[in-house]
Amino acid sequence: MTSATFPADPKPPAGWSRYFGFSTDAKVIGIQYIVLAFFYFLVGGFLAMIIRGELITPASDLVDRTVYNGIYTMHGTIMLFLFIFPVLNGLNNLLIPTMIGAPDMAFPRLNTAAFWLVPVFSLLLVSSFFVPGGPAAAGWWSYPPVSIQNPLGHFINGEFLWILAVALSGISSIMGAVNFVTTILRMRAPGMTLFRMPVFCWTALAAQSLQLIGLPALTGGAIMLLMDLSFGTSFYRAEGGGDPVLYQHFFWFYSHPAVYVIILPVFGIFSEIFPVYSRKPLFGYVYVALASFIIVGLGLVVWVHHMFPSGVSQWMRDLFMGTTMLIAVPTGVKVFAWLGTIWGGKLRLTTPMLFCLGGLFNFVFAGITGIMLATVPVDIHVSNTYFVVGHFHYVIYGAAVMGIFAAIYHWFPKFTGRMPYEGLGKLHCLLTFVGANLNFLPMHPLGLMGMPRRVSSYDPEFTFWNVIASLGAFLLGVSIIPFLLNMLSSWIRGPKAGHNPWNAIGLEWLLPSPPPVENFEDEVPTVISRPYGYGSGEPLVEHQEEIERRLELQEATA
Amino acid sequence: MTTSSPRPINRSAVLGVSLWVGVLVLLSHWMGQQAYHWLPVQASNAAPLVDGLFSFETALGTFVFAAVVSVMLWVMVFNRADKYDDSDAVPIEGNTKLEVIWTAIPFVLVMGIAVYAMRVNHTLGVLGPMEHIHAHNSTEIQGGYPGDRLPAEQVEVIARQWSWEFRYPGRNVSATELHLAVDQPVTFRLTSDDVLHGFYIPAFRLKQDVIPGRAIDFSLTPTREGRYRLRDSQFSGTWFAANQADVLVHSQDDYAAWLKQASGQPLQAGLSLASEEFSQRQQQKNPGWATVPPAPPPQVNVPGSPSLPHDG
Amino acid sequence: MTSAIPTPAPAHGHSEHPKHNLTGFIIFLCSESVIFLAFFSGYAILKTSALNWLPAGVDGLEWRTPLLNTVVLLSSSGAIVVAEHFKAKEKLWLFRGFWLLTMAMGAYFLYGQAVEWSGLKFGFTSGTFGGTFYLLTGFHGLHVATGILLMGIMLIKSFIPGNYDGGEQGVQATSLFWHFVDVIWVVLFLLLYVWQA
């Protein structure tokens, strides 16, 4: 509505240079996280193009097998530790303080330190491309004994740098998690009870709690892996009495919940965006909020489903199949709640809404293949095949990354003060949706036919679906071009955004765009009702009309 | 749909929804039948059970997915706001009855699937005892295993970087392709000489990781004659993708004949694509990143052929 | 649920609100305990599944000296409570005295640990027994050393005039950390020295 062009912001925050220094402002750090994450998104995406280029033919003919193994390992590691976690932490930094009306994070300096660890460990990880022997090549799971074989015998090797980078990433994430949890628990606006908190904050709280519980287990396992690799212990070496399966327990105790760390905030994004563009309240707010914590509880006791064929006993298979199936229930509650939200709404199919709808489509598909993977007999057949690769790319790319794009388009005007272009956004959405489905759907038949994951060559009967998948991957590669164009051009010369261009309800929309350094400073409004009051006519905060009038006045006079 | 509902029931809406649900049920049933075609041929006693479960899940999943997508498409087509319509929709905050229903139904559904899957699991009963053994001390020193514990035909499977070796204890036969008799239960004793491997025969629908430091007993019954692929399913390093072997299921007579003929053959180097590629790679100036050298090809009676067409 | 449950007022400005520090620290400790939990469970799994747990020539761990160490470390938790008590009564010098006593007891524990390590017949590469023993005691020892360092910092800061104007979260957090290190040691002692069967 208010997207007409206004000359200049009343309080323009300092210039571009602040994005390149040690800032303690969560809004600067958030953008630093997101921009750095997208840089690594391009790096990881480039590696994916090489992977799909190799797999477009059955023979191992594009790169050497050692190179292929290094590249797929680094693709997974970069996408998870350098793209998706940082980009979500970026959104947390931007959204949590503004949504709860806090001036900043609870520990701004800790926040700075947590961010600046990312360039440090990312350079460490990328430098492993240049050490003798090449980078880690044992997959992002880094299962021993393959991961501790160290063919050249050098002390500094790809795997060594990989473990260090992952451990530092863990430390950075723990620092972030302590900060986010403390901020949400202690710095909410007056009147904002937990059950008046936006669902994004609920899901962030849930996800960050999982980080706090899960990450130390991975760190512990990684310390033992490093000792085995570099100092001759035998925690995971069968020759010395160790047990390679023990590592898998440590790894999955964190890395399964890590999927919820990724997807829970995306559930939060869906829950924020569906009401805005359906003009209806979130259906069953309390259930949606609480379901996040049921997912946390269950998510901590499902990890063995990654190890059904790894040599676990039958009772463990049955038990963990049961817990895994149960996760479908709270997840289903959320999906149905979103359907209930859009049902009978007044839909505006803007770019963020389209991304959310596409993401929901992909997520439901991934949920169904997830149930198939949870059942032991089917899992025994398809585990470690392309079926699993297809499943988690539907979750991570199809649902999570699309949700993240939705969030970026939706909150872009808030934090940059400029409107993104709708046309380019919709093109980006279309290419992403088609590309993702073309890329990841063929992986399911491949897995069912018995094509193992992580292979650098395959039998000729798998060629057809691999060609389709590769074409889809190249389309996904192209899809990023309109996105980057849109971001760059609209940030530089996009139309000025008003404080609430989408007519959305939430504390962040009662701030100018972009918000001043300390958000509401000392005048934090008192929250008097639930979020998502679309159509109810109730104000969210005390003196809402006055606040909005002041903002409009500022925009008009500036 | 109860008559006590305060709102008058729109008959045509009920009819439309019922019709559409009917269409979706038919579609789901059809997809469930299609699911069998996505899988390789059924060559073991496990395959029909696994495929049945998968088909059931496909049908159920199709229904849920199609229903959700139907709602989304309906909303996107019929609940669009007009271009200049700035107003909000009717504020419905929730419905406890609906919440209970859509919590309870998935709960019952997934528990049903879980019970079905557990029963399949226990019918299969593929997993025998898993004993910890001293690494590099697997079969040679212990000298096989007590025959009374394993009534079925016994095959030792030794996984290496990157070759498979199959030994038939008591028959003095070893091979780099796996020969089995149709309808004859067989128990494998899976050991690894180096890293994790995965013993995976897609046509049998069965998979088990091979873990260094453990001997894992694993039983199945092949049910169809033919030539199938065994693939390494747990990443094992550079030539992981090439670590495959053929599985031949013969009639009982052919199997006996093969064993007899094989035991007479002299030991020779078995198949190892990795060793061949490694020696070619050694010639190159700048071959790539570092790799562990492959284990030498095992000495076996029957190397087999690497390039015959397989059934699945 | 719409009734207004009192919520904490937001912090003003960019300064780190001292009350949040303790919250953050408690959250961190909960997280840190999981790493020990991981090591404990790894130890238990490796021990119960091992074919030969003890390396050749080792019959188990001597427990008498470690028991003395344990007593010293546990009593130091009492000393730090006394120190905090005097802090609350604003008897700064008594606080410093008991604080220093706690540090000394911690240091004695580390010394005892070093003596024990030097007398052992196995190294950290002696199978999973040696590996887990040194990993657990070493990682715990690192925490004891960190605790002593933190106490040292708090001791020095206690001489800064007006140090406690903004609250005494530093002292509380350090004390909490020390109790945490103690509890971990009790579990560790039970696992390593008592459960030797």
Keywords, please?
heterotrimer; A: 558 residues; mainly alpha; Cytochrome C Oxidase, Chain A; 0% strand; globular; disordered N terminus; B: 312 residues; alpha+beta; Immunoglobulin-like; 2 domains; six-stranded mixed sheet; five-stranded mixed sheet; 35% helix; 22% strand; elongated
Describe the structure.
The complex is a heterotrimer of chains A (558), B (312) and C (197). Chain A is mostly helical. Helix content of chain A is 64%, strand content 0%. Chain A has a single domain, classed as Up-down Bundle (Cytochrome C Oxidase, Chain A), CATH 1.20.210. Chain A has helices spanning 26-54, 65-100, 108-127, 158-186, 199-231, 244-278, 285-299, 314-326, 328-342, 351-374, 376-382, 386-416, 422-440, 443-449, 463-493, 544-557. In chain A, helix 6 crosses helix 12. Chain A is globular. Chain A starts with 25 loop residues before the first helix and ends with a helix. Chain B has 312 residues and is α+β, with helices and mostly antiparallel strands. Chain B is built from 5 helices and 13 strands. Chain B has helices at residues 11-35, 46-78, 96-124, 252-263, 273-283; strands at 127-132, 153-160, 163-168, 173-175, 178-181, 186-192, 197-201, 206-210, 214-220, 226-232, 244-250, 268-269, 299-300. In chain B, the strands form 3 sheets. In chain B, strands 1-9-6-2-3-4 form a 6-stranded mixed sheet. In chain B, strand 7 and strand 8 form a beta hairpin. In chain B, helix 1 runs antiparallel to helix 2 (46-78). Residues 1-5 and 135-150 of chain B have low confidence and may be disordered. In chain C, helix 4 (127-157) packs antiparallel against helix 5 (169-194). Classes of the chains: A mainly alpha (558), B alpha+beta (312), C mainly alpha (197). Chains in contact: A-B, A-C, B-C. At the A-B interface, helix 2, helix 6, helix 7, helix 8 and helix 9 of A face helix 2, helix 3, strand 8 and strand 10 of B.
List the helices and strands and how they pair.
The complex is a heterotrimer of chains A (558), B (312) and C (197).
Chain A lengths: L25 H29 L10 H36 L7 H20 L30 H29 L12 H33 L12 H35 L6 H15 L14 H13 L1 H15 L8 H24 L1 H7 L3 H31 L5 H19 L2 H7 L13 H31 L50 H14 L1
Helix pairs in contact in A: 1-2, 1-3, 1-15, 2-4, 2-12, 3-4, 4-5, 5-6, 5-7, 6-7, 6-9, 6-10, 6-12, 7-9, 10-12, 10-13, 12-13, 12-14, 13-15
Chain B lengths: L10 H25 L10 H33 L17 H29 L2 E6 L20 E8 L2 E6 L4 E3 L2 E4 L4 E7 L4 E5 L4 E5 L3 E7 L5 E7 L11 E7 L1 H12 L4 E2 L3 H11 L15 E2 L12
Parallel strand pairs in B: 2-6, 5-11
Antiparallel strand pairs in B: 1-9, 2-3, 3-4, 6-9, 7-8, 7-10, 10-11, 12-13
Helix pairs in contact in B: 1-2, 2-3
Chain C lengths: L17 H32 L14 H25 L3 H27 L8 H31 L11 H26 L3
Helix pairs in contact in C: 1-4, 1-5, 2-3, 2-5, 3-4, 4-5
